[in-house]
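User: quick one, fold this
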Amino acid sequence: MSWAKLTPAHVLVCPGNHDLAFSKEPWTKGTPATDLSANSSAEYTHFYETLYEVKPNNFLSCGRRFCVPDGMIVDVVSLNSSVLQQVPDAFQGQGYLGAPQLDEVNRTMKWSRDPKRPKAFRVCMLHHHVVPIIHREHPELGTSASVVHDAGALTRWLTEYEVNLVLRGHMHLPSFIKEKRALDYPKQAEWHEIAVAALGSSGVDATHRPNQPNNYGIVEFARNQVVVSVRRISADDAIANDQRLVYSSTLKYEEP
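Assistant:
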């Protein structure tokens, strides 16, 4: 924020699967969840209050509405996918959002499907996977699938409220997927395209990203299009700038 001359209003954060202390060792994968009380989110709440000088909502989610220089309105919502659906002694870190959190987004951001109302370009950010990413899940005792448990409800919600772009993390590798979904399936179904982008990890240890560099993502907004790109981070100055590009994809946006 200092070198880029940003304020807290320019920053959105969302908790990852190690940011809520459901146990005494939240950094250890596979640790049973032993504390589901408000104490589990105390440190993240303190971090949030220090950054924004305001208390977070009950879901630890947040949102911003931006007007970019070309005139496009952009809504960015940060979701908390680390809410535990389980009871004590269950594995922590499984992704889940829940209907109340998504309903809160609709209410506070005033999202609707009314074609008569102007619609912003809508972006959702969360930690866990929205669609299957891992090539094959290993059916090992004590582990779970990487996709959020309510992925079906989430993707329907993304379709219903016409979210254009989802930014997610969890895996430390970049990827980009486009899906078309419809709420109902009559003969003339209205299909909505959702782009799901993983921007990689800018600082994780090499053991968590085999044979892959660290990466960072850039999302560029223009009047009728949005360009999502990922570039690699390398200590080798001999790598040319054009070789640092991992992938780039352009999303067309029709202004209502």
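User: anything notable?
Assistant: The beta strands are 62-67, 73-78, 121-126, 165-168, 174-181, 192-199, 214-221, 225-233, 245-252.
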